[in-house]
């Protein structure tokens, strides 16, 4: 749970969804956010069948939310028409 929580929080910071320690706005870093989400995806793949139902649901839910947030952030920062 701690590793998943750490990585999901990291991805949210990288997408600019969370404020910095002093409350400052952090610009999105979608390249690294994608890498962090991909790392969670690998974690899910490699632990499949070895997690409790609660752990599997937590990972599923977090990955879903991060992917949806990533798509939304990508739309916001991409130039129109691409």
Verbal overview:
With 82 residues, the protein is mainly alpha-helical. The protein contains three helices and no strands. The protein has helices at residues 2-14, 30-47, 53-77. The longest helix has 25 residues, at 53-77. The protein is globular, with a radius of gyration of 14 Å.
Give the class from helix and strand content and strand pairing.
mainly alpha
Helices and strands, in order, run as HHH
Please report the distance between the alpha carbons of the first and last residues.
Answer: 37 Å
Report the sheet-strand fraction: under 5%
Supply the number of helical segments. Answer: 3
Tell me, briefly, the overall form. globular
Q: What is the radius of gyration computed over CA atoms, rounded to a whole number of angstroms?
A: 14 Å
Outline the low-pLDDT stretches: none
Helix content range of the residues, please?
55-70%
Instruction: Summarize model confidence as the mean pLDDT.
Output: 93
The tally of beta strands, per DSSP, is 0
Main beta sheet, described? none
């Amino acid at each position: 749970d701690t590793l998943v929580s750490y990585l999901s929080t990291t991805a949210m910071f990288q997408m600019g969804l969370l404020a910095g320690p002093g409350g400052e706005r952090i610009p999105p870093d979608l390249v690294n956010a994608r890498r962090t989400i991909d790392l969670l995806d690998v974690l899910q793949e490699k632990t499949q069948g070895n997690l409790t139902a609660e752990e599997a649901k937590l990972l599923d839910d977090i990955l879903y939310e991060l992917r949806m947030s990533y798509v939304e952030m990508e739309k916001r920062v991409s130039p129109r028409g691409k």
